[in-house]
Specification:
The complex is a heterodimer of chains A (about 240) and B (about 100). Chain A is mostly helical and about 240 residues long. Chain A is about 70% helix and about 0% strand. Chain A has 2 domains: about 160 residues, no CATH class; about 45 residues. The longest helix of chain A is centred in the middle third of the chain and has 26 residues. In chain B, strands 1-2 form a two-stranded antiparallel sheet. The chains are: A mainly alpha (about 240), B mainly alpha (about 100).
Chain lengths: ~240, ~100
């Protein structure tokens, strides 16, 4: 095989894409059960299978789909349901801001696709890849690879949950895989006092503020954590 | 009909949130402080999501050796910290939850 020595192999779009797929693959152990739980929950909330599956494609954000399905079951006004999804997904605005500098040179159609694929897991592995020192110019292919892997897995696992309906007992506690997935992403990334301080204070604040309406506690706690991290960094 | 409308509007809202900074970056000048702030986004947001999963039960604080989620979560944090391995963390955390639930009940 002919290898161009001036460019490392990882620079090729295909290799970047495959590295993205590989990077996000371990997280699927958490995503698959979580997607199945969503499917089961949506059906038991009374949503028709087609609507439950469409939510996975249209909203494509696990925790907000959970909450939205529960709100459908409770028959709350549509505006409350929409606002709740909006607030729970506000954190994606933070992800968007964080990833924006790295994708700014891409043509718009790339930005539209990549924005659609901006989930917790794809963001976590991709930002990690962007922040690595090498100057590969095809890192958006890595983002696409991780995002599409997550998208496909999410659609299939929610379909499986919808199909299985209520035949998986709640006592299996498969919803716990969400917390475990986030632990697996966050803990290894806590490399200094500032980021650890940000994480711990956000976590404690989220527990204290949990009962705020519209799940606003999550956003408030995230902002508190970010400010604490910033304050610790300034002092040192 | 109203269900579909709810889902579509919620989806558009979510997509707009994801697209916002990606599409407007460079067109709006971002202060330096914002850029420094962004690196704290992942640890803060994700911890704010999983802490309540471990520490609350039906919205009430539940710190007790009877809280299987708290015990397995702490074990998973330890595994994640020592091994930095996603697979070990999720698999061991889930097995631990089942074992603790069996022991507690």
């Amino acid at each position: 095989m002919q290898v161009n020595k001036s460019l490392p192999a990882v620079n090729l779009p295909r290799n970047e894409f495959l590295s993205g797929v590989k990077a996000v693959l371990p997280l699927m152990i958490g995503v698959i059960p979580f997607g199945m739980i969503y499917g089961i929950l949506a059906i038991s909330a009374g949503l028709p299978p087609s609507t439950a599956q469409a939510m996975s494609a249209i909203i494509f954000a696990g925790s907000s789909q959970f909450i939205s399905a529960q709100l459908f079951a409770l028959n709350v006004p549509a505006i409350i349901n929409i606002l709740t999804v909006g607030v729970v997904n506000l954190r994606h605005g933070l992800y968007s801001a964080s990833i924006a500098p790295y994708v700014q040179k891409l043509p718009n159609h790339w930005k539209w696709v990549l924005a659609y694929l901006l989930t917790d897991e794809a963001y976590a592995v991709t930002i990690n890849h962007y922040q690595r020192g090498d100057n590969s110019r095809n890192k958006h292919w890595f983002y696409l690879g991780s995002g599409l892997t997550l998208w496909t897995t999410w659609q299939i696992s929610t379909a499986a949950g919808i199909f299985l309906g209520t035949s998986i007992p709640a006592s299996w506690s498969l919803d716990f895989t969400l917390a475990l997935t986030f632990i697996a992403i966050v803990v290894p990334a806590l490399k200094d006092r500032a980021s650890t301080g940000a994480a711990v204070s956000a976590g404690v604040a989220a527990v204290i503020l949990f009962n705020l309406p519209l799940k606003l506690g999550l956003l408030a706690a995230s902002l508190i954590g970010i400010m604490v991290g910033l304050a610790i960094e300034r002092r040192s | 009909m109203i269900t579909w409308l709810t889902i579509i509007i919620a989806g558009v809202l979510t997509y707009a949130t994801r697209l916002s900074f990606i599409i407007f970056y460079g067109k709006i000048k971002m202060p330096a402080i914002v850029e420094q702030t962004l690196k704290f986004v992942p640890p803060a947001v994700m911890t704010a999501i999983f802490f309540p999963e471990l520490l609350l039960d039906n919205g009430q604080l539940y710190i007790s050796p009877g809280n299987a989620r708290l015990l397995s979560g702490m074990l998973a944090i330890l595994v994640a910290w020592r091994t930095k391995n996603v697979t070990y963390t999720i698999v061991i955390g889930m097995l631990a939850l089942w074992i603790f639930q069996l022991l507690i009940n």
